[in-house]
Amino acid sequence: DTAVSQTPKYLVTQMGNDKSIKCEQNLGHDTMYWYKQDSKKFLKIMFSYNNKELIINETVPNRFSPKSPDKAHLNLHINSLELGDSAVYFCASSPRGTGSYEQYFGPGTRLTVT
Amino acid sequence: GQNIDQPTEMTATEGAIVQINCTYQTSGFNGLFWYQQHAGEAPTFLSYNVLDGLEEKGRFSSFLSRSKGYSYLLLKELQMKDSASYLCAVNDYKLSFGAGTTVTVRA
Questions:
Q1: Which chain A residue shows the shortest CA-CA distance from B97?
Q2: For residue B56, what pLDDT is reported?
Q3: Which among A24, A54, A72, B10 counts the fewest CB atoms within 10 Å?
């Protein structure tokens, strides 16, 4: 069974479009995250939710809007896509949100904006 | 701000030992993680150090010195499958990652 799953795995779209990425975890964890990994492989946190409540909101353009319908799901909606949004987006989860727990990462969504 | 430094690349021979250093200057510190990431895959957890000293897990060991802002990951008896990126991450109630060290293992 997949612990953290993301859909889609690949996403190719044009500038200006709106797209969503979905994430689900079946580990029973309270906390979920979105990370962005750019072309230089630098992994940077974007958002974190603990039991559906937003607890980390890094300096991210407001075109990015996360939504957590329940603690097992965390989605990421991106409006008006730009070329610089091209990256791999990873979802992750951990038992708690203090940062002291191992995080389990999903397989990633490779977003290409043309 | 967060400043986490690791070497960009390292190459070693199968069966050898490689040490990946990580230095950090961060506004807060609650521990340091090491993750492994194979090309095109997700990061996976290797180790977590909260207190000073060496933590050993099979072929992999991780060391932390909080006073020096320094950690290293030691990979022993290198295997071809160890070719990957190794990410150092500081826990300040959220993870701040270094840029990663790409290790290439040659036969």
A1: A43
A2: 95
A3: A54
Mean pLDDT of A44-70: 92
The parts of chain B modelled with pLDDT lower than 50 are none
Query: In this structure, are residues B88 and B7 in contact, taking their beta carbons and an 8 Å threshold?
Result: no
Beta strands B18-25 and B3-5, pairing class? antiparallel
What token pair was written down for B65?
Answer: 């010195």
What is the pLDDT at residue B1?
A: 61
φ/ψ of residue B81, rounded to 5? -70, -10
A82 CB neighbour count, 10 Å cutoff: 12
Q: Between B33, B42, B48, which is nearest A108 by CB?
A: B42
Closest of A67, A29, A26, A28 to residue A47, by C-alpha = A67
User: What is d(CA B99, CA A42) in angstroms, rounded to the nearest whole number?
Assistant: 5
C-alpha to C-alpha distance for A92 and A25, rounded to whole angstroms: 8
User: Which residues lie below 8 Å from residue B104, measured CB to CB, with a gap of 6+?
Assistant: B9, B10, B11, B12, B83
**CA A37 from chain center: how many Å?**
10
**DSSP line for B35-97:** EEE-TTS--EEEEEE-SSEEEEETTEEEEEETTTTEEEEEE-S--GGG-EEEEEEEESSSEEE
> How many Cα atoms sit within 13 Å of A56 on the Cβ side?
22
Q: Which two tokens stand for residue A82?
A: 């730009």
Number of residues in chain B: 107
CB A82 within 8 A of CB A18: no
Distance from CA of A95 to the nearest CA of B (A): 13
